[in-house]
Each structure stands twice: as C-alpha cells, then as structure tokens.
Design a protein that fits this description.
The structure is a single chain. The protein is of the alpha/beta class. It has four domains: about 1-65 and about 190-305, 3-Layer(aba) Sandwich (Aconitase, Domain 2), CATH 3.40.1060.10; about 65-190, Aconitase, domain 3; about 305-510, Aconitase, domain 3 (2-Layer Sandwich), CATH 3.30.499.10; about 545-760, Alpha-Beta Barrel (Aconitase, domain 4). The chain has a seven-stranded mixed beta sheet with strand order 31-30-28-26-32-33-34. The protein has a six-stranded mixed beta sheet with strand order 9-8-5-6-7-25, with helices on both faces. Strands 1-15-11-12-13 form a five-stranded mixed beta sheet, sandwiched between helices.
Amino acid sequence: MIKLGTAGAWLLNGNEVVEDGPDAAAVIKSKTGRNVSKEDASKETMAYSILEKHNTSDNMDKLKIRFDKLTSHDITFVGIIQTARASGLEKFPMPYVLTNCHNSLCAVGGTINEDDHMFGLSCAKKYGGVYVPPHQAVIHQFAREMLAECGAMILGSDSHTRYGALGTMAIGEGGGELAKQLLNKTYDVAMPGVVAIYLTGEPMKGVGPQDVALAIIGAVFGNGYVKNKVMEFVGPGVSNLSADFRIGIDVMTTETTCLSSIWRTDEKVKEFYEVHGRGECYSELNPGDIAYYDGVVYVDLSTIKPMIAMPFHPSNVYTIEELSANLMDILDDVEKRAVVSLDNKVPFTLKDKVRNGKLYVEQGIIAGCAGGGFENICAAADILKGRSIGADEFTLSVYPASTPIYAELARNGRLADLMTTGAIVKTAFCGPCFGAGDTPANNAFSIRHSTRNFPNREGSKLQNGQIASVALMDARSIAATAANKGYLTAATDVDVEFTNPTYHFDKTIYENRVFDSKGVADPSVEIKFGPNIKDWPEQVALTDNILLKVVSEIHDPVTTTDELLPSGETSSYRSNPLGLAEFTLSRKDPDYVGLAKGMRAAEEVRRSGACPMESNDEVKRAFTVIKEAYPELKVSDTEIGSTIFAVKPGDGSAREQAASCQRVLGGLANIANEYATKRYRSNLINWGLIPFIIDEGELPFKNGDFIFIPGAAAAIRDKISEVKAYVVKDKLNEFTLKIGELTDDERQIILDGCLINYYRH
C-alpha cells in the first residue's frame, strides 16, 4: 500500500518521480533537456515558495516567519492572551480566531467554562479578534470554512492545525509561539526538509480518508521519515480525491510528527472555496516543472484497505482484514503495549471482546476535525439507512464539525436517517478527541474517527482503576460496525450505494452568531475575569549555576503530552496555572508533583534571601558535596529546581501546559535522548526550561539524584553546545549534557527565565 523512497527524489511536471542516484541527472536531462541542481530544484516545491513569501529574514536557511492568521481554542487561548498581556499586548496585529470547542461542557472542578468564554469574547472586543461561541464549530472546521487561503500560512495552538489540502500551510504550536506573533515577533525555524507524498490510483468503494491517513502514519511514524519536515501531496492521485477526502487525510498528518503539509490545488479545491463564498481565496498551487524533495512516500490509493489503529497510538495500524485473520495474536500484542503504556497499574485485555471469533466493540464515535466532515457523515448515514445499531451495549455518537454542516445534514435528511438507527447526533465539540466526552465504561472498547487514541484520550481514570481504550477507524467502517450491532466490520464488506449529496454552505449561521471585530480593537472594553482565571506566577532569570533534582524517570519509547499532563477533566483548571499544575504526570508518575514542589519550596527559600540548606536536608547534603569541589560556590546564587528524564517526550498535543506546569512547579530543564516534536521543545524553551539532550545508553543518574550544572547560564549565553554536569553522590560524578541548536532569541528567553520575562525586558 505504502512504499518509502530510499533517497531524495525529483518530481518532473508534477507527475513523474525520479529517485536520486548516480544516474538521476542523466535521466532528468533526457526527459526534460535541462540540467538542474538540487539546490535550485528544491526551491521549486510549493512549500519553499510559501515559506519564502512569509520569511522576514534574508536567510532562507534560518526562517523568521510571520503568519497571516492565528487560531486558538478554549483550552489554550486564556494562557496565550495572559502571556501576551503580561508582555505588553495592545492589539491583535492580525486576525486571531478564538473558538470554544474543547471545554463546552459544564465544569467539573476548576474554571467554569463560561468564565473562559466571556474572557475570550471580551478579549476579542478589546484587542480586535474573532470569537466563535460554543457548539458552533470545532476549531479546524471553522478555519477551513472561513480562514484558509491558497498560499497563506496559519499558526494555531492546537497540534492538528492542518489546512494543507486547501493550499494553506498551517502549523500547530504551543501558546508561546502565538504570543510571539501577537507581539509582532517571528516564528523562528530552520528551513525544513520537504517530502513528496506521491499519490496514484483511486480509493476503492468503502475506503475513506482515515484509512489512507492511518496507512501513511503506520509507514512513517516509527522511522521518523517525515519528522519535522513538510509533507507535500502531489501526483495524479490527488485529482481522484474530493476536497473533503483530502482534508480528512491532511488533518492526520500531525500524527506523523511532520512540521506541516501542503497539497497541490485544482478545480475541486476551487469549488470548495466557491461553495463557502470565498472564491477569491483560491489560486492554483503546483510544484515547479522540476522539483527536488528530501524523500518520497509512494501511496497507491487503489491498494488501501479499511484500516484500524489499535490502542495506544495512531501508528499501531493494521488492515481490518489482517486484524480479523490474526485476532488473538494482535490482541496479545496490544496487551504487551498496555504493560508499557499503563505501567501495569490496571489489568488490561481486549481478548474478552472476542465473541464467536469476532471482535465486539461497545462504542462508536464519528467526531471532530477528522471525522465530523460532511462527506464522512453522509457516507455513514448511507451505510446505516434503514438499519438499527441494536439495543445492547454498543452505542454510536456523531458530532458534525460545524453548525453549517449540522444544518445541511438536517436539510438533506441524513440527520433523521442516523437518528432513526439509534445513533445520537451531538453538536460540534472536540471532547471525544481528548477525553472530555463519551468516556466509555470500564474495560470498554471504543472505535473512533477522531485524531488520537493515546491512553487517557478516551477519558479513563487510571488513578481510580478505570480503564477503557480506543481504536481509530474511518467513519465508513464505524458505520458498518454499527450496522452489524457492534461486531467489527470493514465498510468494504457491506452492500451500499453512496449517494454523495451536494453540500450547501449557509454563512448566515455564522453571521448571526460569531463576533467579528473586523480587526478593530476597542481599548475601552473591560476584560471579564472569572475567579479561577489567574495570572502566571513570576519566574526568575537563570543563575550561573543550577542544582536539579531528578523527580521523574520515564523509559517508555515515546512519552505523549497527555502523559506529561493529562487532558480531559483536568482541563477545567486550564486558566489557573497552579491549579492545573497539580495534575502534572498524575497518571504516569503520581509522586512527581510532591517531589517537584519540594524543590520549588527550597528555591523559594533561596529567593527570600534565606539559606535553603537550613530548610531542606537533601539540599544541604547536595551542597555540602558540591562545595568540596567548588568551595567558592555561593548557594544564594545557585537556582534550585527539578528535572525529568524521558526517552522521547512531547508526542501529541501542542498544549503548552505540558511544559508550563513543570515550570510553575519549579522545573528548570528536561533531559531526553530526543524530543518527539519541535513544538514540545519550543514550549520548554518558551517557559525557560533547558531542553537538554543525553546520548542513548545507561543513564549516569537515577530518579531522586541531584545534578549540579556549573556555568549553565554561561553555556546558554556563549552558545556552548555541551556542558559538564555532575551527579551528586558522595562525590561529584561527571557526565555530559548537550543543549542542541538554539536561536539567539531562544537563548535569551531561557536566560530571562521565560517568554514573559523576555518581553518585559
């Protein structure tokens, strides 16, 4: 189904791939009559031209990007605006859309959701933004309908900010990067590699966009083939896909750990813009006649079969056919994964779901930016029409991605078709994607056309002994399973005629309800603060020397941001930094918060002018050993904090809270073999945490050890790539930490203690 190129590749006239090699130049000359260098041909990608247009520096190797538009949802926009306000924000300098699609349910312990929503509305008025009320649209569907433009760039604070299918290069990053844009600063990144996703063929009947996406993710995630690169979708197969189908593939590119995506555009994309009343936003995008790519992924659409991503990651993919044929073996593999993912905290099995040789599931969900599109829901309705989902354990919920889609489904009768089967149709909400809606029963198994199936993304409460799990599938196969009353079924195995109804977009829905300042700020507006909306606690500048206690040690192959900071009900504390921090690593390492607080308390003593050695015996013992080697060391000038080790942290959500919560608990650094995503590393930096790298192999320290790093600030300031660090035992045991590449601004942010301090200076 999927084949990866073994080298770079040339794309000729958008159709023919020539893989790089000793004979490539001769082949290209024979086909085109031209001699073209790799350097010149690499400038012929769509990605290069868009990045060049938005780069404010004169160096295309070191980009300083200004985006055209920004977008955030209600888990993130309070923190972003609070950061920008503390740094001198006076007006949104570009269109900034605040959606309310993540916390639209009643609060369960923290901030009342409407308090955050009123904060957002008042900020949109005061600073000149756009406010999308709850239940109107999920963030990415609104962006597709109202924000995307061919050749434009959008920055969002949600990791699935992907509008490449509509010709828009979009990037999902942590809130600090959006705050920079709001303060007229730039997004600084090295010129990314660009990988061609070369599509041929046409999907078979019953195969949907999630099937294609999962097949690609399965092929590229584990080997990092597109990590931090731009995925550029080209080839003749693109023309065989509708705009909705392309969107459904595109939104899932985040799960490959790529930086962004872009697709060639054509009449189908033009039609999408025209249907949405924005025909002027369309332009045709194609790579140049001879374009060079850093790699190529061959996707023959005709060979893609219905897929399933088994728990606990979107890359854990199989064809449904393969799963059915090797059911017990694959379920055994899932159980082994569970041991790692769940740390053996709760018993886990799916083997009890096997009934008469078939896999039974208790829940199906079609939702959000991935599954809630018009074509997905219409296809599901076609499969289910005239059938019943049954009156047993199995349930089906459908969440259209926007109110305009919901309204059209009502007009064309598909809503009634779904409801008649026993399915429940709900409003636009992202809850099933991050564990805040439709949490399955204990030990239940859910199949979802959504974005992620990490642990806790379904809302499980491991700390209470409750565990459920999620597999990702396409809406079509979920509907086929529902028609089979919960027994796993591929959509290619049901007899159905897809009606493919025409979509009609009704913009009056937004005109009647969405607040749009048209970019006009009103400084007289008073921001509305609920009682649980709190400012960021003050941070201090990095000292010359630092003392770190290792307070968590994680050896999972990959650590997600949901494990660093669980999503779901914890998000009700999203606007209270100290309140939210109480949940940091709560499901992965419940001891973390208490241990981190212990170091924060010692640091607070130091900041007060007292001696931390007098109040903390552990700290006293560590400094006693250190001062034997460094007798001139001043304890009063040595910052005390905590650190965690993880093999590869940061896969998943762009939510900056995974980093900021560590910081407000006194964290000063992360230590990792590598970072899963650029966005997590950026979040660490923007919150003043040093993103240390350590070589793979046996660690020189263990959980609970103290690490002393002399000259930490000097190393950051003087662009030193490696630092000597010392494990504090009976004596100092030396080892090496790497810092990695940092821009000048990033270095200053770390030195200042965080982004807010940087802008205050």
